Each structure stands twice: as structure tokens, then as C-alpha cells.
Amino acid sequence: MTIDRTSYSLPVARMVADLRAEIAAWRKAGLKIALVPTMGALHEGHLSLVDLARTKADRVIVSIFVNPTQFAPHEDLDAYPRTEKADAERLAGRADLIFAPSAAEMYPTGFSTKVSVAGVSEPLEGQFRPTHFAGVATVVSKLLLQSLPDIACFGEKDWQQLQVIRRMVADLDIPVEIVGGAIMREADGLAMSSRNVYLSSEERKAAGQLNVILRETAEKIAKGAIIPDATREGADRIRALGFDHVDYLEVRDASSLASFPSGRVTAPARILVAAKIGRTRLIDNMPV
Ligand code: PAF
Question: Is residue 2 part of a domain?
Fold first, then answer.
């Protein structure tokens, strides 16, 4: 197969060899290349990353691949929204190439390698989704090695993921600059996410308060409240909104994600939450 230049208003590569051929031509012309890895179902948060990439590079590739290895068997792999045509329309005039490989192209028969990042992968999401970050690290390392971009952009909404990727790139000497893009929020502050489409209207209303509680808890801690006291009160407030379960509400070192055993913030810190309402699990974070 060669690059599909007719289905959408920007070209789509589905095979690694085609992606590499296109990139080789850009490299020959001395162009700077950015990659924005996504799982599709693109919203304003993704588009802001594409626009950020555009300010830093001459050519922007957006990968669209719903990566099966980062979903546990009971998670929403099958239900995850797949909207390639709409995604391509949103990227028109913003990106230069879509890379949308099949699962067989990414994980051919016999595929046996796993990239696992110790330490930073282990707390928080790692406790609730123990296989998730190995799936993310494996696919992101493949995407980076397939395209060898100068920069790659990831959203700060998945803060822990961003730290896992930074650690992996440093540890494996992958020659790419990792750039984090700010969280994009709806009018009520709800962090944009492809999973927000699962929310009923009542759940959506409650979900809009999650960021308010996160901010107020962060402010209390910044003013001197003891971390476990403030996060316990914050988690109670989240449950009182109608959330079924708070997986975690924690304050951690912003890059190592280590906890603060003294109960006080002693280094640049982030407050992170994961909570479930109905069938939707939401995550959010902000600086303390
Ligand atoms: O953040 C995501 O959408 C995914 O985890 C990523 C980085 C594209 C890897 O599949």
C-alpha cells in the first residue's frame, strides 16, 4: 500500500514503510518534524497539541491508533470512540500527515517486546491499571522509533503518562524532545477527554465540579493544610457530588510522583485525581 492522498484532505499512511518514506523526503528537505500521538476521537485538547506542534516544527504528523495493549480486558477498548473521518476533517489545515496503522501493522504475529518503566509507572494509575503504562510505553516507543521526530507532544491531562514517557525517552536515549501541552477545559472547567462522551447529562453536571474540588484542595495545601487531611476532605466532597468511587486524590512530586511522607509539600508538586461516575472514569490534575 502507498499513502492514501484521496480519502481525506490530508494524506494518511497506514504502513510504517510509507510513513518512513514520507518522513525521509521531509528530512532530505531539511524540515523539522513533530509527532502528536493520539488514539483519535479528537477534541480541542488534541487540536491544541497539534497547534503547539505546528509552532515548533515544519511538518506535523498525528498518529491515530487505539492501542489495545494499554487496555485491560475489562476496560473500554471495544467501546472506545473511533471517528477517523471526523478526526481527519478536524486536522485539515492543521497537520500534514495522519499515521493510522492497523493493530496487525503495530503488533504483527510473533510480537514479544514490552517496554516497562519502573518507579514513576507504579503509583496512582499504576495501582488501578497495572498493565496500562507498559502498553503506553511500548506503543509510544514504537511510534517514536517509526517516525524519529524532532519533537513529540503529549497532553498534561495524562500527567503521569507524560512523566513515564519523559523517563522512558531519557533512559533509552531516544533522540526526541518531549513537549507537554496544557490541559484544555470546558466552560465549567471539566478537563476535555474523549471519554466525556460516555457521561449522562446528570453525570456531566457533577463531573464539572471535580476540577473545582481539585483546585480548592490544592489551594488549602498550598496555604499549609496537611496533605492527608485535605485530600481526605476533598475525596469526601467528590463522593458527595455523586461519584461512585474515588480511586485516588493525592499530592505527589510533579516529576517523580513520589509522595510527601511529611504531609507537607517540599518540592514542585501536583494534585492528581481519578474518580468513577457511572461507567466513566475521569482523571484530572493541576499544580499545587
Ligand atoms: O494519551 C493517549 O492518547 C495515549 O495513551 C497515547 C499516548 C496516544 C498512546 O496510545
Answer: no
